[in-house]
Amino acid sequence: MRRTALVAALAIMMPLALAACGSDDETAAEAALPSAAPPPPVATSSAPAVPLALEITPKDKAKNQPASVEIGTAVAGGTVETVKVVDGAGKEVAGEMRADGSSWVPAKTLAFNASYTATVTAKSEAGESITRTTSFSTMGRPGKETGTGLYLFDDRKYGVAMPVVVEFIPGVPESHRAAVEKRLFVETDPPQPGVWSWVKGGDQAYYRAPEFWQPGTKLTVRIGIGGLETAPGTYGNEDRTATAEIGRKLEMRVDNSDKQMKVYEDGKLTRTLPVSLGKPKMPSASGVMVVMEKKEATVFDTYEQFGPEEGYRVDVEFAQRLTWTGQMIHAAPWSNASQGRENVSHGCVNVSQEGGEWLFGKTLIGDPVTVTGTGVKLDEGNGWTAWNVSWEQFIKGSALPIPDNLRNVTPSPTNSPS
């Protein structure tokens, strides 16, 4: 079997213990002391070795197991050495142990209406071994399934604020979120441990670290909920995976007080663009947003959204989506005279034609955009709002316990939303 443990959705970094050493002077001082009679021997005792024992699940001949089933391993007096799972034809099934050694997880959803045999061997430090075998069968394809979406794609580059975003249709109820979260796996290289947080309603979950990703980070993601019960009588439709990379660091900061956008690359201000934000009747939202979508050319048709009085239909270039409700950055040559002076848009961030084209060529999906001073707060879930709350608030959305090394974190002001 592969011995690399699964990196689960909740990564834990263990501190190293440091040994203190005495100085040469202290050793010399001890040698100078007059000799004394040796102390009487101290009685010592060692705890008897724990007998090697191994229990595995599912139980032998278990039927109707979910296609997401894991091979549970409970060991006393030793550790799991190997896990081998084969299907009914004798073909080995790929999988890995969880980091905590509690179970073996198949690398992809098992087949429905299929039989499997698992053989687990554990060993003690003394070299004693024990093997257990169990056979089981999986259930048929369920009649009700949860649809899933992963907003991350193979071989793409993303901005430093790109959260791992998973969508569930319908949303996952609170009773099932912990089990689902345990099957959401993220690995980062270099390591940057993070946490999952659920949006109210359970239709989305975000994964992020305390700070923006380091440029060049490799993200490897598996949403392993195919065949997993996501609600009573409802099961995940399929696994999803993606491997992507984080690009350079670029941030956009928009301040309503002076109606300017400042663009920072690797922490350095590279350009300031005049903007026009939402007019008083339709103010822009303030908050930390993320570029979700880019369209070089599109059509805004807002009659259904705003009605006949405020609605319009117009061709737009260099549009970058920030919210689901339509707040965007885009070129708006018709508002050039107002940019830097007054707010006249329907909630978007208007920039000049030249500024919009320049910015469009610079940005990546996942770049952070911070808008301040409009008096209207960004709603949770209106876009990828993972960065619109503090780390302390973000981790409250996890369905699993948070370890102290991630709970007690103060993000650096130089690498988190300003």
TrEMBL record:
Keywords: Acyltransferase, Cell shape, Cell wall biogenesis/degradation, Lipoprotein, Peptidoglycan synthesis, Signal, Transferase. Pathway: Cell wall biogenesis; peptidoglycan biosynthesis. Residues 250-372 form the L,D-TPase catalytic domain. This is Lipoprotein-anchoring transpeptidase ErfK/SrfK. Residues 1-19 form the signal peptide. GO terms for molecular function: acyltransferase activity; peptidoglycan L,D-transpeptidase activity. Pfam families: Big_10, YkuD. The lineage of its organism: Bacteria, Bacillati, Actinomycetota, Actinomycetes, Micromonosporales. GO terms for biological process: cell wall organization; peptidoglycan-protein cross-linking; regulation of cell shape. The keyword Lipoprotein applies. GO terms for cellular component: extracellular region. The active site is at 330 (proton donor/acceptor), 348 (nucleophile).
